[in-house]
Specification:
Strand order of the largest sheet: 1-2-3-4-5-6
CATH architecture: 3-Layer(aba) Sandwich
Distance between the termini: 45 Å
Radius of gyration: 16 Å
Number of domains: 1
Helix content: 40-55%
Number of strands: 6
Shape: globular
CATH topology: UDP-N-acetylmuramoyl-L-alanine:D-glutamate ligase
Number of helices: 6
Order of helices and strands: EHEEHHEEEHHH
Structural class: alpha/beta
CATH superfamily: Ribokinase
Largest sheet: 6 strands, mixed
């Protein structure tokens, strides 16, 4: 709690091992919201209550599909219902080579296509997304811009042939430029 005062963001990643309790998680989220720092939560599907009031939550595509089936609606409607029910600003769905989908309250979802030439592996994708969201939102960027950065970070993980090899700065810059250009064209 004391460290939140000097932080730019709070990341809660729940592996459901008993460390992240509902009560403690909600205390952290409330304090972060009170001092105005964004909260990124990577919840277990069974622990959504632990993320109530978060700025953005992270799911994988299959997890989001499962949640929609549990709710009994399509994914878009399920996302809008959960955004309201849990007071989230956004949901970021990691789809691997299928890209990243951003859901925000009262707006259509945005698909950020994957620009990686091939998917070599996925280990670390959630951590890359959470870290980039924290850095972007903690620096005052919009959720949309933060999602673009998270998408690029996920592509770096997907493109690495081993856990030690990642995309260099120039290649990442080219991907971000290309992605930005595609988004401008699609807005027209």
């Amino acid at each position: 709690m004391e460290d939140l005062e000097d932080s730019c963001a709070l990341v809660i990643s729940d592996y459901d091992k008993g460390v992240v309790t509902i009560e403690e998680s909600l205390k952290l989220i409330d304090k972060a919201n009170m001092i105005g720092i964004p909260v990124i939560v990577d919840p277990k599907l069974t622990g959504l209550e632990k993320s109530r009031g978060a700025s953005v939550v992270i799911f994988e595509k299959r997890g989001m599909s499962l949640l929609a089936r549990r709710i009994g609606s399509d994914i878009e409607e399920a996302a809008q219902n959960m955004l309201i029910e849990y007071s989230w600003e956004g949901i970021l769905v990691l789809g691997g080579i299928n890209g990243v989908q951003l859901y925000q309250r009262d707006s259509e979802s945005i698909l950020i296509p994957c620009m990686a030439p091939a998917a070599e592996q996925q280990i670390g994708m959630h951590d890359a997304a959470a870290t980039s969201l924290a850095a972007a939102l903690g620096s005052g960027l919009s959720l949309y811009d933060a999602a673009l950065l998270a998408s690029a970070a996920c592509e770096c993980v997907l493109s690495a042939s081993t856990a030690k090899e990642y995309i260099d700065r120039d290649t990442l810059g080219l991907w971000l430029d290309e992605l930005s250009w595609q988004m401008r064209i699609s807005d027209r």
